[in-house]
Amino acid sequence: MKKKIILAYSGGLDTTVIIPWLKENYDCDIVAVCVDVGQEADWNTIKQRALDTGALSCYVADVKQQYVEEYVWTALKADACYEDKYLLGTATARPLIAKVLVEYARKEGASAIAHGATGKGNDQVRFDLGIMAFAPDLEIIAPWRTWDLKSREEEIEYLEKRHIPVPMKKSDSYSRDDNLWHISHEGLELEDPANEPSLETMLKMTVPPEKAPDKPEYVEVAFEQGIPVAINGTKLNGVELIRTLNKIGGAHGVGIVDLVENRVVGMKSRGVYETPGGSILYYAHQELEHICLDRQTYAFKQQAGQKMGELIYGGLWFTPLREALAAFVDVTQQPVTGTVRLKLYKGSIAAAGVSSPYSLYNANIASFATGELYNHADAKGFIRLYGLPILVRSFMEQGPGTGEGKRLKTDAKSAGIAG
Fold this sequence. Notes:
alpha/beta, Rossmann fold, Argininosuccinate synthetase, chain A, domain 2, elongated
């Protein structure tokens, strides 16, 4: 009986090569599974390409809404970010894709799952750990870790020798990943950090900031318990909302990130990311949290968000710690409801007003005018007690070497802090 392999199929260069390679190296039937997380794709053409190159069948699983509601919003509510810049576009999608692959493997009675992640990249970790979390019994096949092909140029040559159409132009052979949340670009001139990115030819969703309109645009985002629900007063589901903001933000050159990051496998790599809608949402969400969360909660949440970003980036979505952090974040988001107005202009995002029924900002307290809720005179005693360790240390350091204890006691008494 032939081995049945589920292949995570995108129709790109890697997976187009993998189908004939698997058939040449395994006695197998290949079931290609395309997981639709919002990438721009002609699924009918991609399905036909899979069949033409040797797949037994090809499925398209539309999980866009699930991706947004269970993965993207989870990261957004936590303000999860990796190394200060990366908004986890690929990293949030891979766990869901892995879960879907396992579901199809069970339906099809497959004994293995194959993917096109390279042996140097993060995605191999994310796919493998996601599959292991739900199907530790399944074999994982990652051709990039075993075959003799060493570059994208060799992959193209491999297809040309077999008279298989190459699904890309040689002059545009960036390694890309796109979904509803972002587009990533790696390779070509980006492999040298000294090179400026060729944004005019590279970008797909966003215009270069200098090509953006000369007039700013204002956009209003409404949130309910940390989740964005409306743009400019119009309620939208998650998929529609992100697409709307991608279009608005992309037109103003918002959300372009050039980052040299630390990969899970230890090396540094460089990528350019387009996340126009996501950048707007992160900015707006943080502005709303600034007025809705108290100091202690906000400070600890920053730590939780950083840790969440590290876990998601490292493929550790299906772990107790990630789930526990998400539970903590959900509690913090209960008062994060309100509206944020932002100004977009040539790649920049600026706050233009925020309001919430749960705002902790009180004008009667914050105003320079003295109000009933705040007595300026109270500050003196607070500062003296708050700075007591500084005062005591200062007395100790400034006194002479002999008779110090007596002088410190006398000075402290005169300062009104002795018992």
